[in-house]
Write a structure and sequence with these properties.
The chain is mainly beta. The protein has one helix spanning 3-16; strands spanning 30-32, 35-43, 51-60, 65-71, 75-86, 89-94, 99-101, 106-109, 114-121, 130-137, 141-150. The chain starts with a helix and ends in a 30-residue tail after the last strand.
């Protein structure tokens, strides 16, 4: 084996043994039963941020299902939240009973609407990395996937045509009820 081939093989082995959340993010579609999860991303956070948001699209080609919980090793608590304007005030609340994924429809978790909320982050979310998450559905069961970490303040996945033009960083999570 040539010296170059040995070096290439050593590099390939080194990369293959890295933990998934330290590799560059490549958000791939994941299928579970009738559900297809795609466009999974989050924003980079400042070093001492206590919260972050996660976003993805869940398309359902079958009967109604329900996203009942989300967990991730990047935070002590991970919840499903909704942001909505009530009486001219933007409010955020936990969806303790989860969120329906409509039959033959789509649930979008996006800035300014339903989203995953990472609370009590164990460290900063860094651009270019990925965040492992486990989503639990009533019917489709448990799904593991990764969210690509985009730049701070991103409005969507870079280069993926997901340019949602809503919301800024989730690090201001404590500002429930702040005027829009």
């Amino acid at each position: 084996m040539t010296r170059f081939a040995k070096l290439a093989l050593a590099a390939l082995i080194a990369v293959a043994t890295l933990p998934a959340f330290n590799l560059p993010a490549f958000a791939a579609d994941v299928t579970a039963g009738n559900l297809t999860l795609s466009g999974a991303w989050t924003r980079a956070t400042p070093p001492r941020a206590r919260a972050g948001g996660g976003f993805l699209t869940i398309a359902n080609s079958g009967e109604a299902d329900r996203l009942v919980s989300v967990s991730s090793p990047v935070s002590t608590r991970t919840e499903i939240h909704e942001m909505a304007v009530q009486d001219g005030v933007m409010k955020m609340r936990e969806m303790a009973d989860g969120v329906e994924v409509p039959a033959g429809g789509t649930l979008e978790l996006k800035p300014g609407g339903y989203h995953v909320m990472f609370l009590e982050l164990t460290g900063p979310l860094k651009e270019g990395e990925s965040v492992p998450v486990t989503l639990t559905f009533e019917k489709a069961g448990t799904v593991e996937m990764s969210l690509s970490v985009e730049k701070m303040g991103a409005k969507g996945m870079s280069g993926h045509g997901m340019g949602h033009d809503m919301g800024q960083g989730m690090s201001g999570h404590g500002q429930h009820g702040a005027k829009e």
